[in-house]
Amino acid sequence: MRISSLFSIVGFILLIAGTFSPLLSFVVRMNVYSLNKPYGIAMLAIAVVGLLCALLQQRGLTRVMAILSLVLVVALYGAAVTKVSTAFSFIPLKGLSSGLSHLIKFKWGWYVLFVGGVISVAASIANRPPRITNPAEVAPV
Length: 141
Prior knowledge:
Radius of gyration: 20 Å
Largest sheet: 3 strands, antiparallel
Order of helices and strands: HEEHHHHEH
Number of helices: 6
Shape: elongated
Helix content: 55-70%
Strand order of the largest sheet: 2-1-3
Strand content: under 5%
Structural class: mainly alpha
């Protein structure tokens, strides 16, 4: 097994762990499944498929799953930022609504998700078969 495949496996394991880690905190801590359960299940399924593809040395599918997982993490972060900024917009007093919005804190789970996505993408891009530069190495004469 190649080193880049091992890094890809580590990245997908971090993505799986990141879906269970706390991402937002207001009164309770929320993970991906508390924010949006179907989205969390999709992220978990993509990470598991990517992990299996990395274990089975399927380079192309591993690359697709790694890029897709990083895109999903970035989209989830954008959705979370939007949700936090508009969470209390129904309150007519802008000072009170912005004060309550500042009480929602981002937690360390985002680091796990981003690091896992970046590691899996970087490892899947670096996971290329060796190139043969000298044709004499293939079939000795």
